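FAQ
Q: What does a multi-component entry look like?
A: The components come first, one per line:
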Amino acid sequence: MKKKLSLLFIMLFAALMLVACGGGSDDAEGGSAEGTTEESAEGGETITLAVWGSSPAETEGLEKTVQSFEEKTGHNVEIEVITDNFVDQITARFAANNAPDVFYLEAYVAPRFIESGVLLDITDDVPDQDDFFQPLLNAFKDDEGRLYAVPKDYSTLATYVNVDLLEEAGYTIDDVPADWEGLVEFSKELQEKLPEGVHAMIFDRTMARHLSAFYATGLNPETEDGKADFTSSEDTFAYLQSLVDGQDEGYIVNPQMDLGMDSAGAAFGSGKAVIMIEGNWVLSALHNEYPDVNYEILESPTVNGQKQTMIFTVGYAINKNTEKADAAIEFVNYMTGEGQQQWSELSGTLPTRQSVTDAMDIASNEDWTAHIEGANYGTPWTSGIYLPVISQAFDNNFQAALNGDMTVEEAMQAAEEEANAEIERQQ
Amino acid sequence: MREDPKVQRQNENPPRKKKRNRAFNSSFQTTLSGYSFMAPALLVILLFTLAPIAYAFVMMFQKIDMLTMESTFVGLDNFRKVFTDPKFWAAFENTVTYVIVVVPTQTIIAMVLAALLNNKMKFNRTFLSIMFLPTLTSSSAMTLIFMWLFNNNGFVVNLLEDLTGERIQFLTNPDLALSVIMAMNIFSTVPHFMVVFLSGLQDIPESLYEAAAIDGANKVKQFLHITVPQLMPVTFYVVTMGLVGCFQIFDQAYIISNGSGGPQNSTLTFTLYIYQLAFNSNDMGRATALAFTLGLIIFTVTFIVNKVMKADEING
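Then the predicted structure of the entire assembly, as tokens:
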């Protein structure tokens, strides 16, 4: 009896091992096996596309555009939605040698991926490159001008003004200055005429919103030789000081920390601020959740006499080790070329090609005018491979200046030292 | 297996050779069946715990690019970098402060609450259920609620301003940001440990209290001289679990600072820094070196606590 029982368990154990091993090999080979059957059935290939989860409109836009691509070419696209910490997950997938064929790539982290050499060089495969807004395309090029991803859409910062609140305070839209220095003065003056709980301006204080102003005031935070620099420009100190002063006196506030709102759009929409410098991602909230707000959109203020704004863009990048490079290139070109209008219309994002922008005639839509203008002169939120380190050091230390624990100069000195020490450790 | 009656009976008659063979076979089979019982758990532990640990041992002496997985051997350089890094010491200070404040506080509060609930008070089941709610809430949800309470326009800040006239900013003030996380952690772990203590209290014989009462000890003295020492093994468990949990604090710090560990590194904890090294800095070697250091620290502290509390000697 006992013998039988132990025999039974040995068999169970063996079965378990088999299942476990079987599962493993299934994962490794299943993909390619599936690929070949698809190929013979439809004459196309199956490529995987990794994206992050986003709004229902964007999800629908992506699915429909991908469908059009599939119908046109006979290829098959498997969309894989990564819900959280996209870059971390993609990095881990590369480490596990299991990266998708095509994936979304944020300009911010693009240099790191380019430098690592894991992306396919597509310089010669993308047609009609002059048609793209050049700052967007440049965000995905390396030092030698080779292209590694194609921008799919973008957002830029612009100045949103709540016209009703402004008029209640006794001003009109024409009184809002177009330069930063004037805008700060205006906000200060405006603040005194606003009711309790309403602030003159909302402006996030992370480096992502201010890199273009740094350039305009003569500071390049990531120098040519890959070092951090926050201290070489007096004008930048003055610019940062204006943010600190604005916070101290309550006329430039941060929606999350100072107002306890979920987002700038919500704070602006519920009438807690008159002016907001934000990206066009707030538009859907303004349309859907706060339809009664009467607002106008101006271009981002000039800094130091120069036009400036931040551009946030995302591109399609192709894994260098993909076995289906041709299909992947075909897909990326479709999504950023022929299919772009469909994608942009459904998702409500801005097209990266000038020709599509013209064809959709969105520049005449007053919601978009200022944002689209920004794509011509704006600064993409990207720099070199150390930008994540440098911006983290900035955000961490600028808070000390905002708290009044350090002067702006001291905080920037500390940020520079922190970033440079970390860069050195990474080498 | 020598006690097995079946084996003993077989031992009496058959020839020697066969007997040894049989004994061997049988003990081999029992070992095998024992291991096959454990196989599912062993397999999981081997694959998901031991193998990564072994791999980490290799990685912490290398410089690794996560994207390409290219690695070069750098010896102890990762450790040199970790120990000369001011952010490491900031994380060290934050985490140690955190542990020193949170572990004793949560242990004491949980013990006192358990003792109170153990008395025959009315509705103690109801109280228990309500008090257990924070433990059931996910820590991310809890963090968001606390951020809502403590942001610069939040409930607590406005309440304090109404009461004292002073506006205290919690989340952007580096001296206070960590204390918000501390309060939150104490709030959410106390109920769990309270239930653990409660079960320990049921095991203390009533006669001890009776004897103490006869000797004239009041309730407080009974608590200090009977309850506390009798609960020592449970306390040891609670303290150890608290230590490990606190040293590994991650999600609250991540959410409250949006992953940056700010303001001014004041919410940068060990595990958050490990995460930053691995995924922001793309430096797996240094991340594993730091993880190993953290493991060593937890091991040492637990060892010391074990020695000091003499957990294995109490009550036999």
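Q: Is there any commentary attached?
A: Sometimes. For this entry: The first strand of chain B starts at residue 62 and ends at 64.
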